[in-house]
């Protein structure tokens, strides 16, 4: 099961809206087939592993990182494929929360006389599949908030200079995390100030994550790196209902996807933004700021995980804070997270926290 989970993790960021699942088929203590959900979401892991195992799958045990699907879509159900292959036992950590499956895959297997074992490494599987589960159960993707800051929590000087606070090794680590998410998201201020491309570079990655910019009025430079690459890598712009129609047409004309979202007061409603991204199929979103967007997501209790990169330099109080105003008066009201990992990356400190 550990191998099945590891295989599934290899596909993170490249299989949405489907979960990235791994499958290992074992017969007489020997692995005879393995597979993961293919890029784009199909074929599924079970199909890949069964094709590799061939006729040897009869009487074997299949370890699958999620309940085999039971519904007919673009391909037949994986539960039926396992039955047809003649496997004797299926081991899975948990049921699929997709209402089209939700225990029906296990029921099909058991009805066919196949032994089903569940609960194996369930906590690990739930962490790996958190984005898929979040979308099927709550309609929004898993959100990781990334902050790269000075020791005193600043992301830029008073003049706006921010490149580079952390070193090249830490930035390469960020690119690896981008690749494991379906989308990379920033606010309009960051898009204007930093002129980012938001792509994964220097890692041999062919399938780029979706670039998402949250901008109520679409007041973004049309000659930016994002605009110039809109037809090379997916670019989605989340905007308000009052955005200038001529700007909507202009961005659509260069290849961007426009996603209207609701407002809360005079700002875009971040809950609406994430619900719309979930409706588009995204399961894992990597938010890289800026401070205003980070504050809005934290205030709305939408941050599931935080990854910080802290450099050994101080910028001072006049610098731009990593997180904007939260309006807190009591510490008990502050969003709190648990530390799960920390490491030194060539002189910078990476620390990862999950929702308490």
TrEMBL record:
Q: Which GO terms describe its biological process?
A: riboflavin biosynthetic process
Instruction: Provide the cofactor list for this protein.
Output: Zn(2+)
- What does UniProt list as catalytic? 46
Mind telling me which PROSITE patterns this protein's record contains? CYT_DCMP_DEAMINASES_1 (PS00903), CYT_DCMP_DEAMINASES_2 (PS51747)
Sequence positions that bind NADP(+): 148, 164, 190, 194, 290-296
InterPro entries, sorted: APOBEC/CMP_deaminase_Zn-bd (IPR016192), CMP_dCMP_dom (IPR002125), Cytidine_deaminase-like (IPR016193), DHFR-like_dom_sf (IPR024072), Eubact_RibD (IPR004794), RibD_C (IPR011549), RibDG_C (IPR002734), Riboflavin_Biosynth_HTPR (IPR050765)
Which key words are in the record? Answer: Hydrolase, Metal-binding, Multifunctional enzyme, NADP, Oxidoreductase, Riboflavin biosynthesis, Zinc
Q: Which GO terms describe its molecular function?
A: 5-amino-6-(5-phosphoribosylamino)uracil reductase activity; diaminohydroxyphosphoribosylaminopyrimidine deaminase activity; NADP binding; zinc ion binding
Q: Which residues form the CMP/dCMP-type deaminase domain?
A: 1-109
**Positions that bind substrate:** 162, 178, 198, 201, 288
EC number(s) reported in the record: 3.5.4.26, 1.1.1.193
Q: Which reaction does it catalyse?
A: 5-amino-6-(5-phospho-D-ribitylamino)uracil + NADP(+) = 5-amino-6-(5-phospho-D-ribosylamino)uracil + NADPH + H(+); 2,5-diamino-6-hydroxy-4-(5-phosphoribosylamino)-pyrimidine + H2O + H(+) = 5-amino-6-(5-phospho-D-ribosylamino)uracil + NH4(+)
Q: Where does Zn(2+) bind?
A: 44, 69, 78
Cofactor comment: Binds 1 zinc ion.
Q: In which pathway does it act?
A: Cofactor biosynthesis; riboflavin biosynthesis; 5-amino-6-(D-ribitylamino)uracil from GTP: step 3/4; Cofactor biosynthesis; riboflavin biosynthesis; 5-amino-6-(D-ribitylamino)uracil from GTP: step 2/4
Q: What function does the entry list? A: Converts 2,5-diamino-6-(ribosylamino)-4(3h)-pyrimidinone 5'-phosphate into 5-amino-6-(ribosylamino)-2,4(1h,3h)-pyrimidinedione 5'-phosphate.
Q: Which family does it belong to?
A: In the C-terminal section; belongs to the HTP reductase family. In the N-terminal section; belongs to the cytidine and deoxycytidylate deaminase family.
Q: Tell me what this protein is called.
A: Riboflavin biosynthesis protein RibD
């Amino acid at each position: 099961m550990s191998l099945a989970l590891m295989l599934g993790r290899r596909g993170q960021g490249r299989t949405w809206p489907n979960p990235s699942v791994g499958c290992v088929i074992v017969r007489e203590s020997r692995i005879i087939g393995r597979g993961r959900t293919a890029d784009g979401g199909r074929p599924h892991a079970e199909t890949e592993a069964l094709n590799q195992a061939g006729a040897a799958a009869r009487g074997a045990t299949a370890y699958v990182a999620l309940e085999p699907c039971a519904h007919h879509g673009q391909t037949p159900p994986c539960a039926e494929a396992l039955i047809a292959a003649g496997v004797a036992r299926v081991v899975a950590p948990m049921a699929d929360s997709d209402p089209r499956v939700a225990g029906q895959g296990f029921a099909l297997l058991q009805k066919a006389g196949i032994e089903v074992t569940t609960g194996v490494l369930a906590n690990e599987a739930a962490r790996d599949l958190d984005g898929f589960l979040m979308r099927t159960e709550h309609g929004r993707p898993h959100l990781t908030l990334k902050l790269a800051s000075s020791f005193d929590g600043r992301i830029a000087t008073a003049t706006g200079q921010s490149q580079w606070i952390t070193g090249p090794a830490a930035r390469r680590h960020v690119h690896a995390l981008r690749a494991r998410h379906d989308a990379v998201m920033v606010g309009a201020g960051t898009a204007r100030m930093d002129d980012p491309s938001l792509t994964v570079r220097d890692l041999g990655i062919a399938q780029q994550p979706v670039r998402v910019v949250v901008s109520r009025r679409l007041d973004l430079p049309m000659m930016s790196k994002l605009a110039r690459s809109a037809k090379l890598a997916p670019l989605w712009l989340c905007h308000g209902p009052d955005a200038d129609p001529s700007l909507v047409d202009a961005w659509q004309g260069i290849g961007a996807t426009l996603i209207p979202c609701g407002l809360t007061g005079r700002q875009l409603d971040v809950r609406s933004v994430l619900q719309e991204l979930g409706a588009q199929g995204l399961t894992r979103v990597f938010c890289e700021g800026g401070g205003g967007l980070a504050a809005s997501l934290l205030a709305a209790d939408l941050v599931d995980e935080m990854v910080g990169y802290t450099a050994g330099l101080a910028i001072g109080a006049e610098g731009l804070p990593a997180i904007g105003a939260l309006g807190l008066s009591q510490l008990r009201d502050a969003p709190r997270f648990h530390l799960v990992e920390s490491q030194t990356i060539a002189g910078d400190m990476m620390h990862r926290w999950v929702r308490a």
